Amino acid sequence: MSDIDIDTLTSELHTLSTISDAVAPAVTRIVFSETDLRARTWLKQRCEQAGLALREDACGNTFARWTGSDSDLPPVATGSHIDAIPNAGAYDGTVGVLGGLEAIRALRRAQFTPRRSVELIIFTAEEPTRFGIGCLGSRLLAGTLDPSAGQRLRDADATLDQRREGAGFTGPLAGVRLPAGAYSAFLELHIEQGPLLERNGHDIGIVEAIAAPATLRVVINGVGGHAGAVLMPDRHDAFLAAAEIALATEAAAKSTGIVDTVATCGVCELFPGAVNSIPSRTRLEIDVRDIDLTRRDHVLTRIADACQTTGAQRGVDVQVERLNADPPAHCDPAIVDLITDACRRRGLSYARMISRAYHDALFMSQIAPTAMIFIPCRGGVSHRPDEYAPPTAIARGVEVLADTLARLSAQ
Ligand SMILES: [Zn+2]
After folding, report:
1. How far is the centre of ligand 1, averaged over its atoms, from the C-alpha of 122 (Å)?
2. pTM for the full predicted model
3. pLDDT at residue number 323
4. Residue 192, class by beta-carbon neighbours within 10 Å (0-12 exposed, 13-18 middle, 19+ buried)?
């Protein structure tokens, strides 16, 4: 029903990518940096030019509203993030933000009148770069991160409160939370960040579930010593215990026999880290994901058991800390059907799929019926300067988003 102005959208994506702390084509935009604030100012101007009413909360989540004819009803929301990890690309998050804005503009050009208000949300700090936790804005908004825990967050030099107040976002963090039912639906458009859509020649991915992520930090304290002087039977090598735990992590993930279970040991830090010194301390960080919560938690338990067994066998102290363990999101079947219908009407090919990366939608699903629309990106590449989605793919995603928002806002 609506026509997308892909030239304007492409040029806006380009302009936003130039508001960056990295040399093009790389994009670095850390939350609350001077660059992030410049990008926010530019984006808010674009929203105002589109006739949207702006609101910001205490953590910097930004809401741009197109008021519907029945403005008392809970609005329909769409959105994503504009922060970017160091040396990232131009499409992660931004396609959902600027694409959401273009979907609204296209519906306005088509003289569509929404019954429910339609709101574009730009979430603060989807990336964990600054404060060590991903989806900070949507977690606070959905109430899955306690405001007191939020107050303890900090970067190397300052607290979250100091950073947000320095960026002009004041007021208690507790005020960020929205009640369940605040939105009638939430829809996030995003690049796939994986290779399946491109490989299989599909225009659109319709996400049915978002995998549940969990992160463990494992700290092993053994006994250090001279690599020549301490004989093998006398050793309590912290790294060798870590190596066994890493292999046990792989075995735990594989033990489910399900491809949706994945576990990764992506951090291994040795102390003192010298070639002639037995490691006395090792820190591991382990990421475990699954779309089934019971299965995911079973894997976490197996890893924790392996930590205790290995610690006892090797005479080292092993401490396990759960940094986060979020439930999976199951997308709303009625919205999934609406997206499917929009693809069919537009003659687009589609595949139903699982999001193995997590997004703000994971947390929004706690307070609103939620779904996601994926578009292919070249080679499945993301979080790199060569991240790329062709304009035709973006236009198709925005068309499906606009069609679905129109249906949801009329309900
Ligand atoms: Zn993203």
Report:
1. 11
2. 0.89
3. 85
4. buried
Give the DSSP letter string of 214-231: EEEEEEEE-B-EETTTS-
39-54 per-position pLDDT tens digit: 999 999 999 999 999 9
Q: Determine the distance separating the centroid of ligand 1 and the alpha carbon of 91, expressed in angstroms.
A: 8
Centre of ligand 1 to C-alpha 57, Å, is: 20
Count of all residues that appear for the chain in the document: 411
Q: Give distance in angstroms: CA of 27 to centre of ligand 1.
A: 13
pLDDT band with cut points at 50, 70 and 90 for residue 133: confident
Tokens at 178, concatenated:
């929205």
Cα(4) to centroid of ligand 1, in Å?
A: 22
- H helices of 123-280, in order, are 136-142, 147-152, 160-166, 196-200, 238-254
pLDDT at site 370: 98
Angle subtended by helix axes 238-254 and 293-314, to nearest 10: 150
In the block, tokens 């002087």 appear at 229
Q: What is the pLDDT of residues 347-372, one digit of tens each?
A: 999 999 999 889 999 999 999 999 99
Choose among 81, 180, 98, 75: nearest CA to 136: 81
> 44 — phi, psi (to 5°)?
-65, -35
CA 78–ligand 1 middle distance (angstroms): 13
Q: What's residue 132's pLDDT?
A: 83
Question: From the CA of 81, how far away is ligand 1's center (Å)?
Answer: 6
Cα(358) to ligand 1 centroid in Å equals 8
pLDDT over threshold 70, residue 1? no
218: nearest Cα among 161, 265, 275, 170: 265
Lowest mean pLDDT among 192-196, 219-223, 320-324: 320-324
High-pLDDT (> 90) share of the chain, %: 96
Q: CA 131 to CA 229: how far, in whole Å?
A: 42
Tally DSSP H helices, then E strands, for the chain.
12, 17
In terms of DSSP bridges, do strands 317-325 and 212-221 run parallel, antiparallel, or are they unpaired?
antiparallel
Distance CA 367, CA 143 (A): 9
Indicate whether 304 pLDDT > 90: yes
**Residue 184 C-alpha to ligand 1 middle, in angstroms?**
22
Q: Which helix (H) or strand (E) holds 278?
A: strand 277-278
CA 24 – CA 28 distance, rounded (Å):
10
